[in-house]
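Posting this for the archive.
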Amino acid sequence: LSVNTGDYDKGRPLHIAAAEGSLACVQVLIEFGADRSLQDRWGKTAEDIAQEVGATDIVEYFENLSQEETA
């Protein structure tokens, strides 16, 4: 299976890891090619979900990745 496979709500493993606040899982999924830009059926990315649940460590991780990509 792809790390970007979605369920019936287009939720991906990255969305679930972010919702659970699991930085370690998020990091592993990113290492294996998870796409941060994918949205669930409500138009939310994993970063959006991390913000909603107060997972500041995950939000910071995503922000750092964005900065590295633009550098």
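The radius of gyration is 11 Å. The CA atoms of residues 60 and 68 lie 12 Å apart.
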